[in-house]
User: Which sequence fits this backbone?
């Protein structure tokens, strides 16, 4: 494993006023136990952990909560999962701020219960409102390059297109859309949903994501801790794969062993 | 980077009588300079390096050759690249043995010059012959599950299906074929051609490859050394991604933040 | 050819107050000559032909225009191609109505010049306004199921998701999105962009489109008249393919020649 | 429907000494009833119908058989479905000839029971043998361009690559392989397995198939007769789509409504 310790660390990514050295963001839903979750979060090396605000017991500070299982040093990213309108999402953001969790928020305004597909109208509206109120808004969105540009103009701190439906494990269905969004926005791009395996995470990074957010693929893997470590390395590999400048895709073969000018040792 | 140093190293893979701790095999064609190649091979962590025998100057032992740029401790895997018949490939294998490179050989019998597609007939024939002569034969083949089983029965030490045409950078075009071959053979499966990026390497490992062989994607990357490191981690990530037991792919969304039984803090 | 004359004609599709017996809508851009265009439109069997209003000379009624090359009996569908805001598109619609072309309009509000990707915000706004003014609005949109439902609620007469970027010939990149939109709206669904070949058109229909709109794939084919006829049949085949209830996709093989209980004539 | 009656009929395809005006070949397995099969075969317009020889009662000529439900004028193509070796397949071919069905044979030598994947070794061996004995051999094969060339050299009357596993309804998984085979052989190319819908059939023809063979997709459709008609038109559409010269696929959009030099009627 020593040879993994080479000089090429990841440069940090900046979202709002915060800086993260890990580019793997992790969710907290669906783990079997809080203990497994804690180990997986540690193995992932993450510094940003998202929590559905509805799962946090805001009323009784003495009761142990999901927050207690999040490793020291991680930033908590409250999300508005389960909100179906701008109003509802804004209200949840207010509660997060009131509870002292801070003003970094992951905005989800869902428009379809089966697909958990974001509502472009409510999402844009809530982004504008929350930005005006001083929140740093990380926005879950469809992988739509024009909508992504609208969200950036509305002041989003990060644009978070889905790769495929939440929890579906289908990966990034249309890599080109991630590349197109990348070419059209300046704020960080985080692929937010659909990652099912390490290769999906690497592919998202190769396409230009600054980070990926993974939840189900880790939480519901047979071995969440091993999967968390695999995702961590895949994000690293995808980042450097992009930086290293990949070869072009071509239709036909390109010999890797040039034989021109070589002595024919064969027949 | 310290957190990359966790306990889950890769178990070694055994091919013929040899054991390899790295599951990234690397080719030596197409590098700009031997120095870049040497650095890339080192960054890759590889222990098995393939060389087109035609590129080795077997006649003048005093002249520096490609072999001098291969890191200490790597096994040399001579290949029969550029051979278009069983006879020709067998002859090249004999030369390798005569030159003292050993009896591990990567067999390529090409059937089409533009696609560098393997010839199933000549490949099977040469495999039988070389196995009989005591070679440990790692066989480049089309991703055909029935042909793979024939090759194993013929005594191949490893079956090496292409993911897509050599040097095309298209990755693994049909993951199911790799999975099907995996389910039908017992000897190591090495995805041998088409890898273009770290996500491709991870995907090959997730599909069941025991190792991947990469040449053009490293040699022709803008930064071959960084790409070699990225490939190394991607192979690691893909291996553990497979071992960790990925979630199933489903069509529609699966909420990662369960809201049942949660207090409705929103509207 | 007689056997093509069987009883299964297509049921008509109703958009706004109009009824169309052909489910192939055709555009008028990019033809080499107006004569080729006329022949292609005739071969296509189309009854709805879209025209960029900017190409129509509205000022000089004596000058021959593109409209003269459109077969008798076809409905003209003016479109707002080239409009980058709701205001601009609405203004073009007003001109179409003033010119007596009618109140059926194809609305395009573009948000990105290179992708010709629709702007969800401007598109929804213009739809609302034009519906209020009594237009029957056929709306070009991204293949977003939530946005499609918004457009229907806004009163769209037809929702027209792109299959892939305009003129790209990539077909329907994500068939599931077409199926999802189909499941969420009641007005006609027309796949509007990206069709490159007859199989693309058939696939769109199989996925649930009520019609397809084709322009570049016919106009820029080497033989536009033959391609128009091929598209016509493909739409027919795709419609009946959907109605006939296709077999499910499965991973492995299903023997088509059952051999159980059959006398073994072989060895 | 009259407009379907235009001048562009399909040119006939010649296989061995026979000529077929329809390019849709149909199988006879899996129909609910012989009556439904008969209607579907008629609706398909086929002139070549394949029958698993094992399903034909060769012993009792008075008993009604599947052959009685095949429309007049169709050529019977006995196949060797269910054979797992060259010997077995050759024996079945001999029985077909002895029964007077003729010397046109569809050769299947299966190498894997779950995938019904062809065995390249047994297939090539049986092809050579049967060609020597005077059979016109239509060969089911993996979509391997080098193997296809071997089969042609062995004397195959038609090469029949699978698009995806038999009965899987996955269509043509790698269109490029069909195109590559097309570029490498001169005898007719028939896509033989995996067709699930009319768009799949059209795509196979567009890729260069001279004909397609469909069984499960028709026999197991909810309405086999309607599906047979849809497949017939799809084959026609795919053929002419290829002949008409499709537009290239490009990544980004190409405006279909050129606006250069047009009067700006908008803002």
Assistant:
């Amino acid at each position: 494993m020593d040879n993994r310790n080479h000089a090429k660390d990841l440069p940090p990514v900046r979202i709002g006023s915060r800086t993260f050295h890990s580019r793997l963001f992790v969710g907290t839903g669906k783990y079997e136990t809080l203990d497994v979750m804690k180990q997986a979060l540690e193995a992932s090396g993450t510094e940003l952990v998202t929590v559905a605000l509805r799962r946090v017991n805001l009323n009784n500070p003495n009761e142990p909560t999901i927050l207690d299982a999040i490793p020291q040093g991680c930033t908590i990213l409250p999300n508005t999962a389960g909100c179906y309108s701008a109003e509802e999402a804004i209200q949840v953001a207010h509660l997060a701020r009131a509870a002292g969790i801070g003003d970094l928020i992951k905005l989800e305004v869902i428009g379809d219960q089966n697909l958990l597909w974001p509502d472009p109208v409510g999402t844009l509206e809530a982004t504008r409102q929350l930005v005006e109120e001083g929140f740093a808004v990380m926005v879950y969105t469809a992988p739509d390059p024009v909508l992504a540009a609208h969200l950036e103009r509305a002041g989003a701190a990060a644009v978070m297109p889905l790769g495929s439906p939440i929890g579906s494990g289908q990966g990034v269905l249309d890599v080109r859309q991630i590349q197109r969004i990348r070419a059209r926005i300046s704020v960080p791009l985080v692929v937010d949903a659909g990652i099912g395996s390490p290769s999906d995470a690497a592919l998202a990074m190769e396409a230009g994501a600054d980070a990926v957010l993974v939840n189900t693929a880790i939480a519901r893997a047979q071995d969440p801790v091993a999967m968390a470590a695999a995702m961590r390395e895949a994000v690293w590999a995808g980042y450097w794969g992009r930086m290293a400048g990949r070869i072009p895709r071509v239709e036909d073969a390109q010999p890797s062993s040039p034989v021109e000018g070589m002595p024919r040792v064969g027949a």
Q: What stands out?
A: The interface with chain B takes residues 176, 251 of chain C (CB under 8 Å).
